[in-house]
Amino acid sequence: MQKTIERIAGDAEGTIYEFAVFRFEGKDKAAPSAYLQAALHAGELPGVVAIDALMPMLAKAETEGRIKGPITIVPWANPIGRAQYHFGEHQGRFNLGTRTNFNRSFPLLAAPDARLLPDVSLGGADRRLKNRLVQLSLGSDIVLDLHCDDEGLAYLYIHTSLWPHMADCAAAMGAEAVLLWSEDSTGTFEGASIMPYQNVPASVARFDRRVVSTVEYRGMLDVDGALAASDAEGLYRLLVTRGVIQDPSVPKFGKFAGPVVPLENIDMMPAPRAGAILYEVKPGDRVKKGDRLATIVHTPGEANGRTEVFAPQSGFILTRRSRRIIRAGEDLLKLAGDGKSSDARSGTLED
């Protein structure tokens, strides 16, 4: 294993951001390559501890000569967001200087060629970071971006061009659901990893062996040793399943048995009033159209001081908010519906 330190110049003299990159060399040039990163939203930690649990497994495989394809690991991909605190609260989702989501505005290249990356020498530290992450991952057959939601199931975002080719990966990782998407107009890291392959020859795209996913490891508070070990085992199984690591003790994984939901089926349920949320449902619950999902207490103690929110269609609860205070118009939860949402959103679901 080789460790290097990447340095990103800040926007003022004397400011430099650093993050570690670990590389495991493969012994088979024909084997797939893999890139894994965590905490692009710097406060989302389940992926960080999963990588921490995965590293000894990779080190053991390296010692025993079982790593076939090269593996690149970035355990904490966002040093800018990692350093951001405001009034004692960590702020890792948005750049406080530009107000841009750290998982937006990645360059969407026309082909998988680093020479097409924009010149960001004067573009701001966050843009330099995003360019460098694309450079590190570009060309890898497997690219996983580890995130988490507020409170939720473990689920994967997968581009339609990779499904059902990635069904074995979803099964190996133990994902509870898959969301399929086809459009990226905002420049997510996942989009920057898969869109360059959409208009190149099939011999270059190789969708049958390509793996790209935003992995949502449940909720913000699910930072737990047992969960980290389980998630690490899932990542390891994926690498074995796709031939990056050789390990005959890992069983073959076939089809994914969980729900596969198009992005346009997701109802985000904007809150009709501001107040305190009393949830009636939790992630994983199956609901029918008309079921009460939550009650918002907006004028406590007064007549008509509560507003109920009902399911617009049948489906299951994918995620919900971790904080129980909400403003009018903010999203209450993700309902994965059996049909298309009347408020269907293309591209990303949230800011």
What do these coordinates show?
This protein has about 350 residues and is α+β, with helices and mostly antiparallel strands. The chain has 2 domains: about 1-260, Aminopeptidase; about 265-335, OB fold (Dihydrolipoamide Acetyltransferase, E2P) (Beta Barrel). Helices cover about 20% and strands about 25% of the residues. It has 7 helices and 20 strands. The chain has helices spanning about 45-65, 80, 125-135, 165-175, 190-195, 200-205, 225-240; strands at about 1-10, 15-25, 35-40, 70-75, 85, 90, 140-150, 150, 155-160, 175-180, 210-220, 260, 265, 275-280, 285, 290-295, 305-310, 315-320, 325, 335. The strands form 4 sheets. A 9-stranded mixed beta sheet has the order 1-2-4-3-7-11-9-10-12, sandwiched between helices. Strands 8, 13, 15, 18 and 20 form a 5-stranded antiparallel beta sheet that branches. Helix 1 packs across helix 7 and helix 4 (about 165-175) packs antiparallel against helix 7. The relative contact order is 0.14. The mean pLDDT is about 95.
What is the secondary structure topology, with strand pairs?
Elements: E1 2-9, E2 16-24, E3 34-38, H1 46-63, E4 71-74, H2 79-82, E5 85-86, E6 89-90, H3 125-137, E7 142-149, E8 151-152, E9 154-159, H4 167-173, E10 177-181, H5 189-194, H6 202-205, E11 211-219, H7 225-241, E12 260-262, E13 266-267, E14 275-279, E15 286-287, E16 292-297, E17 306-310, E18 315-320, E19 325-326, E20 333-337
Parallel strand pairs: 3-4, 3-7, 7-11, 9-10, 10-12
Antiparallel strand pairs: 1-2, 2-4, 5-6, 8-18, 9-11, 13-20, 14-16, 14-19, 15-18, 16-17, 18-20
Helix pairs in contact: 1-7, 4-7
